Amino acid sequence: MEALEPIQQTLSEIDKRIPDALRAALGLRKRRASILLPGDAYVTSFVASFQQPSSQRRDAAADESPVDNDGAAEPRAPLRMDWASCYARHHDEDAHFGHEDAGVVGVADGVGGYRKNGVDAGAFSRGLMTSAFEQVLTAEPGTPVCPYTLLERAYEETVASAATGRSTAVILSLAGTALKWAYIGDSAFAVFRDGALLHRSQRQQKRFNCPLQLNGRGSGDSITQADVGEIAVRHGDVLVVGTDGLFDNVFDADLERLVRMGTALGFSPKNMADVVAGVAYEISMSGSTDSPYSSDSRKLRGDRRRGGKQDDITVLVAFLI
Predict the structure, then answer these.
(1) Confidence (pTM)
(2) I need a surface site. Which of 51, 70, 151, 293 has the fewest CB within 10 A?
(3) Rounded to a whole number, what is the largest CA-CA distance in the chain?
(4) pLDDT digits (tens, 9 = 90+) for 259-287
(5) For 179-188, what is each residue's pLDDT tens digit?
(6) Where do the structural domains in the chain lie, given as residue ranges?
(7) What does the DSSP 8-state code read for residue 321?
(8) Could you give the CA distance from residue 272 to residue 269 in angstroms, rounded to a whole number?
(9) Residue 68 has pLDDT above 50, yes or no
(10) Alpha helices (H) in 16-83, listed in sequence order
(11) How far is the C-alpha of 120 from the C-alpha of 198, rounded, in Å?
(12) Please, what is the angle between helix 123-138 and helix 147-160, to 10°?
């Protein structure tokens, strides 16, 4: 598998990139001198991993539809993804990949319950993403990518490899001006347009904190249960993809606010992925800040839980250009 050396960053470095105005808007604490993961002071940004060299970006003039001599507007070129990611490790059971030229990204989350039995709970998630990435690499350039077919083949290869554990997963691809997806479980995505939430995937779960999940022993859920669909997208839309470490800790309204403010401040995909992951991490370590996880726990289990959920946090941000 082709992969470049990942960029290592401390959470304190990412923390410094979160504007005070954004902290105030989200009700976060004032900036601290240092934020460290227990036992590991680093997060990994795979902005340079699992991707081919980016093709030349279009300039601003290319965003306007040119007009020919007859006054007819020429069709725009197919959309592309300008993407980056940030991975804040807790148990190191998440995996992800992206290929800008093919317009494909994916994330997977190993089910941590296997960890109690001494099993590598991240093996299946890594297998899924490794297989999916290798299939994209070996495909003929320009070949349309069907997310469901890609996920199905990755699943079959991972099963054949006898990888342990279970995993949720989501894969998205661009096809002209359509964003297509296939996902199973609670790894999720959201699409934003002009600072507003346009579309949000719905988590698949059997009960609270028990998502649908794939494994190789026949006891998992069927790949045919994957949610499949597509939505029309356009230049300027923002795609945020993540594991439940993001979506269990950040409400949709707050994620919308993060994207809107980040766009207004001119954030790059890298900066936005860092900030979103940093905010999710801070909430995950809080015992008082409310989160989707604690809110659902109160509603569905009748407890008084507050605070976030400590977990691996993977965030991919893609600008559609």
Answers:
(1) 0.85
(2) 70
(3) 70
(4) 999 999 999 999 999 999 999 999 999 99
(5) 999 999 999 9
(6) 7-52+77-320
(7) -
(8) 5
(9) no
(10) 20-26
(11) 37
(12) 120
